[in-house]
Design a protein that fits this description.
The protein has 667 residues and is α+β, with helices and mostly antiparallel strands. The chain is built from twelve helices and 39 strands. Helices cover 16% and strands 34% of the residues. Strands 7-6-5-4-3-2-1-8 form an eight-stranded parallel β-sheet. Strands 9-10-11-16-13-14-17 form a seven-stranded mixed β-sheet, covered by helices on one side. Strands 26, 28, 31, 33, 37 and 39 form a six-stranded antiparallel β-sheet that branches. 52% of the residues are buried.
């Protein structure tokens, strides 16, 4: 967790002297055999925070059983902060249940969860109070708390880092480790000190998992930020000692289904704990399908316990490789960018032996294909694919692996190619590549645009014989009608081919498209305009309030160094706003700066930019929390798109809440 109030309460924790390497190795010598695969389960914090009670936790256990989550491998049902009374029992010094939230008591709750064949987890902090400051922490009460947890039947302890009085981190966490072991009950110990003191260097032998980062939230930007911090730490992970990049956000509603699938794929390939952080009573079937993917879970839970490593990351095109216990390799391809991309690697590059053919399993189609060694996928923005590949002698029994891609090309610099204004033509390529060892015959590609859109064929896509590694490509010129309604559309490409001896096969690909609304007219405040596309670094772009948090609508009145503003866009770096102006607007202006919503922390810096198509027309330079607002203006003459950007200024994103105040567009 936590809120800034909690962060302030632990100020100075990062000043503790790191443990010597020798100390870490001694601690590892008697490490208990717990969590030999990454823990799987549930934690309520990200969905409900302190709004937690025993009914919620019982409901989660029931849903584990009824939904198939238990059968898929999820076993821990964990309650986070706010479960205890505000004070300890005056007679015994023990923690006690919150009288109204958990009236039946914690042991009764643990017994209920155990009766379902599941395990129970609980929370406290290595400080005087927990992060929500609603209950006592475990500092200097390690033995009595550990014994209390053992007596209740606790199987998992999350030990946070708030209100720690600047006491040495290693002392605090090893004391609880020792206390847990003294109870004789096997309790998985989750170190939650947010990566501040590099727990990957000393956590093995202290706990079974350790947080490598600050808190996740339900935004794509934060998920990527955490990915980039956790991915380089693969060498520290293994059976019984895992890097923990925080809970899964799948099902909380802040990301798309495509982004949630990528979130799940990436956490799985990184051998991360899979702790569901959403209220399962509200999760959609599509999101349940993600959480229940047993092929992906099998990669995460593989007994070898290797964290996947980054083979390459070229321009946001990620390739992860994870070795598996039976000699297979798992591969995750991930497109971080805002445009469609085809990402590929080979069996040789990931370390498999040379073979005529390979069996390639698509873990989302749950289907095996034959491959000559290429692993490839055409991915939408923020999309991913996950495969399992092995050299095999029966590769020929499976359908050919054919990579089909639909690529959209427009002439707008700096704007995602999937944004296609009404009445303006763009180009589409449908390309299919034979990745199988054998040739396929009579390969042809076709295009299915939205109904009523004008289509002109530029290049026919047909090959009588398509050899291994060769592609067939068709090209079309497509124009949305001038009167088409703004909104989301989809365009499909189709490949038909003959698999010799087996008959005709089809492969498909799609591309999402967005038709923007018509440009505004007159002089308008941009906060009143529905923009074409927005991307916020910490929740949505807010109207007439600051960017408070990830949920939206939780900001404060706009204020830059004491100056109040009635209208504007509240952002948090990195953020971007795109608006189609269609060559009909002449100028944009705003006052920009760091918002005063900083929870009393003196920090925050960013730059603010205005772009006309691919040309930057205004730049604020670095602005900090100390600075007054600065006026920013730029010409949009002839531009098709306006783009507003807030960057982190090059020093990280903490408290980089920034405002485009009084954003005025002249059209």
């Amino acid at each position: 967790m936590r809120s800034l109030v909690a962060v302030l309460a632990l100020a100075g924790a990062t000043l503790a002297v790191p443990a010597p390497a020798a100390a870490a190795s001694v601690l590892a010598a008697d490490e208990p055999q717990l969590a030999m695969t990454p823990p799987m389960g549930f934690n309520n914090w990200n969905a409900t925070g302190c709004e937690v009670d025993e009914k919620l936790i019982r409901d989660m256990a029931d849903i584990f059983v009824s939904s198939g989550l238990k059968d898929a491998g999820y076993e821990y049902v964990n309650v986070d902060d706010c479960w205890a009374d505000a004070t300890r029992d005056p007679a015994t010094g023990r923690l006690r249940n919150h009288p109204t939230k958990f009236p039946s008591g914690i042991k009764a709750l643990a017994d209920y969860i155990h009766s379902k064949g599941l395990k129970f987890g609980i929370y406290t902090s290595a400080g005087t109070m927990t992060c929500a400051r609603t209950m006592p922490g475990g500092l200097d009460h390690e033995e009595i708390d550990a014994q209390t947890f053992a007596d209740w039947g606790v199987d998992y302890l999350k030990y946070d880092n708030c209100n720690n009085e600047n006491r040495p981190f290693l002392e605090r966490y090893t004391k609880m480790r020792d206390a847990l072991r003294k109870t004789g009950r096997p309790i998985v110990f989750s170190i939650c000190e947010w990566g501040q003191n590099k727990p990957w260097e000393w956590g093995k032998g202290v706990g079974q998992l350790w947080r490598t980062t600050g808190d996740i939230n339900d935004t794509y930007t934060k998920m990527i930020d955490i990915l980039k911090q956790n991915a380089p730490l693969a060498s520290y992970a293994g059976p019984g000692h895992w890097n923990d990049p925080d809970m899964l956000e799948v099902g909380n509603g802040g990301m798309s289904n495509v982004e949630y699938r990528s979130h799940f794929n990436l956490w799985a390939v990184m051998a991360a704990p899979l702790l569901i952080g959403s209220d399962l009573r509200k999760v959609s079937k599509a999101d349940f399908d993600i959480l229940l993917n047993k092929d992906v879970i099998a990669v995460n839970q593989d007994k070898l316990g290797a964290q996947g490593t980054v083979l390459s990351n070229a321009g946001g095109h990620w390739i992860f490789v994870k070795p598996l216990a039976n000699g297979d390799k798992a591969v995750t391809l991930f497109n971080e960018t805002e445009v469609n991309a085809t990402i590929s690697t080979t069996a040789s590059a990931i370390g498999l032996p040379k073979s005529v053919g390979y069996t390639l399993r698509d873990l989302w189609q749950h289907k095996d294909f034959q491959s000559a060694g290429t692993i490839s996928a055409s991915l939408p923005p923020h999309g991913s694919a996950m495969f399992r590949i092995k050299a095999s002698r029966d590769w020929f029994r499976h359908e050919p692996s054919i990579d089909a891609a639909v690529d959209v090309r427009t002439s707008f610099q700096g704007i995602p190619s999937t944004i296609v204004p009404a009445g303006e033509a763009f180009t589409v390529d449908v390309k299919a590549t034979n990745q199988a060892p054998i040739p396929v015959l009579d390969a042809s590609v076709s295009l299915s645009p939205p109904p009523g859109w004008k289509v002109e064929r530029v290049q026919a896509g047909r090959e009588h014989v398509l050899l291994q590694g060769r592609a067939v490509t068709g090209t079309w010129r497509v124009t949305p009608p001038a009167g088409v309604s703004p909104g989301d559309y989809s365009m499909s490409g189709l490949l038909n081919l003959t698999w010799v001896g087996h008959g005709r096969l089809s492969r498909g690909g799609t591309s999402a498209l967005l038709v923007p609304a018509a440009p505004p007219s007159g002089v308008v405040d941009l906060s009143t305009v529905k923009t074409t596309k927005e991307r916020g670094g910490y929740g949505p772009i807010e109207r007439n309030m600051s960017n408070g948090g990830p949920k939206g609508g939780d900001g404060k009145p706009l204020s830059i160094n004491g100056k109040k503003y009635a209208t504007g866009l509240g952002m948090h770096a990195p953020s971007e706003v795109i608006l189609y102006v269609g060559g009909k607007c002449s100028a944009f202006s705003a006052e920009v700066g760091i918002d005063d919503e900083r929870d009393a922390v003196m920090m925050g810096s960013a730059t603010f930019e205005v772009w006309a198509d691919g040309t930057k027309v205004a730049d604020s330079g670095l602005r900090t929390w100390r600075d007054d607002a600065v006026a920013l203006s730029g010409s949009l003459k002839g531009a098709k798109f306006l783009r507003l950007v807030e960057t982190d200024g090059g020093d990280g994103v903490r408290y980089d809440r920034g405002d485009f105040a009084v954003p005025t567009l002249t059209c």
